[in-house]
């Protein structure tokens, strides 16, 4: 019998990578993608452990799982930092900080 590729191996890997790449989008997108990747990885891991001789691609599952965990941690940190800044500084303070930062960058570019 020919070995089959695990059904969600590529999806778990892609979602794990995307969870890291999107962790800076307020933390929510990366968190969601990482959780979906872990759920799909769990299903495929159970499938693989039942019949390991029938499937290939388990390395993609384990790599995607690690990337998803990293993405979840980074996204959770980003989300907590954003919540903290909104609670402490407020929306107006965040806008003023952003405006000051943009002015500083423009000033430095003009003086180079």
Task: Tell me about this structure.
- The protein contains 4 helices and 2 strands.
- The chain has 112 residues and is mainly α.
- The protein has one domain.
- A two-stranded parallel ribbon has the order 1-2.
- Helix 1 runs parallel beside helix 3 and helix 2 packs antiparallel against helix 3.
- The termini are far apart.
- The model has no long low-confidence stretch (mean pLDDT 93).
* SS field, number of helical segments: 4
Query: How many individual domains?
Result: 1
**Element string (H = helix, E = strand):** EHHEHH
Kindly provide the radius of gyration, computed on alpha-carbon positions and rounded to a whole number of angstroms: 20 Å
The biggest beta sheet reads: 2 strands, parallel
- Describe the strand arrangement of the main beta sheet, using strand numbers: 1-2
- Work out the helicity level: over 70%
Which stretches are low in confidence, meaning pLDDT under 50 for 5 or more residues running?
Answer: none
Tally of extended strands? 2
> What's the rounded overall pLDDT mean?
93
Given the C-alpha coordinates, what overall shape results? elongated
């Amino acid at each position: 019998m020919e070995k089959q590729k695990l059904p969600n191996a590529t999806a778990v890997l892609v979602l794990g990578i995307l969870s890291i790449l999107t962790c800076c989008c307020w933390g929510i997108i990366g968190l969601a993608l990482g959780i979906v990747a872990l759920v799909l990885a769990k299903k495929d891991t159970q499938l693989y452990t039942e019949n390991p001789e029938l499937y290939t691609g388990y390395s993609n599952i384990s790599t995607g799982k690690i990337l998803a965990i990293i993405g979840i941690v980074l996204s959770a940190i980003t989300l907590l930092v954003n919540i903290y800044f909104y609670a402490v500084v407020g929306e107006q303070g965040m806008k003023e900080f952003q405006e000051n930062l943009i002015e500083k960058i423009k000033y430095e570019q003009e003086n180079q």
